[in-house]
Design a protein that fits this description.
241 residues, alpha+beta, 2 domains, four-stranded antiparallel sheet, three-stranded antiparallel sheet, 11 strands, 24% strand
């Protein structure tokens, strides 16, 4: 006689972009491979494992994990983690006032918020006539830009930065017309970007610099100095402990 099958509960979450996603908690076997990836500390391995687990846990059809913005993927994973392991995580925090005392600090996942800096927008006004609508980089694009770029020579780094900008253009508008980036060649888009002056290009740089991110803000008490310290924690791996 076969053993009974365990049916996992399902939950629904509304993503930042408005789409509703149904998911199940991750299983013991999936938690195991996540822990192995996190212990290895390699960002590329963590990203690949994270996406693999999310693909297994997401029930809603049409959700492309490969194309989800990095912060939205992290937000979704954090909620799945909460339903799978528990709604709190305990971290060891280093106090800022002496930069050496470590104290345990318990965080409720509900206190981890998506930080969207004031003024952040995906609509870049180039001038009175032209506006660029940007799209957020996927997790893989984010990793490529932050880790692979650091190993390249200066000229290659510039080319890679331009590639990232071009890949994240969604639509170019004028008052009368609109051009979807998907209908343009990469060469055309690069040529368009190269026409911008430094001030105009800096607006695009601001889009990337101010992208939403998961963040926890709180306070810890230093038992040695008897002082309260502000705590700011970012980075998905920190919230998985």
């Amino acid at each position: 006689m076969p053993l009974p099958k365990v049916v996992a509960p399902t939950f629904e979450l509304q993503l930042i972009t408005g789409k509703k996603v149904k998911y199940r908690p991750f299983l013991v076997k999936e938690e195991k491979i996540l822990l192995i990836a996190l212990e290895g500390g390699n960002d590329a391995d963590i990203s690949a494992t994270l996406k693999s687990v999310l693909k297994s846990c997401i029930i809603t059809r049409g959700v492309d994990v490969e194309k989800l913005p990095s912060f939205e993927l992290e937000y979704l994973f954090l909620n799945i983690r909460g339903k799978s392991i528990g709604e709190t995580v305990e971290l060891l925090v280093t106090c800022e006032d002496d930069n050496e005392t470590k104290v345990p600090h318990k965080i409720s996942l509900s206190d981890i918020k998506l930080d969207v800096p004031d003024g952040h927008t995906d609509m870049i006004k180039v001038n009175d006539d032209i506006t660029i609508k940007m799209k957020y980089p996927s997790m893989q694009q984010f990793l490529d830009n932050n880790f692979i770029v650091g190993t390249l020579e200066n000229d290659e780094r510039i080319d890679k930065a331009f590639d990232t900008v071009v890949d994240c253009i969604d639509t170019i508008f004028t008052i009368d017309e609109a051009w979807a980036a998907s209908d343009c060649t990469k060469k055309e888009l690069i040529k368009f970007i190269e026409q911008l002056n430094s001030q105009q290009f800096s607006k695009i740089e601001d889009f990337f610099a101010t992208m939403p991110k998961l963040q926890y803000k709180g306070k810890v008490h230093n038992p040695k100095t008897k002082k309260d310290n502000d705590v700011v924690i970012e980075g998905l791996s920190n919230f998985f402990a």
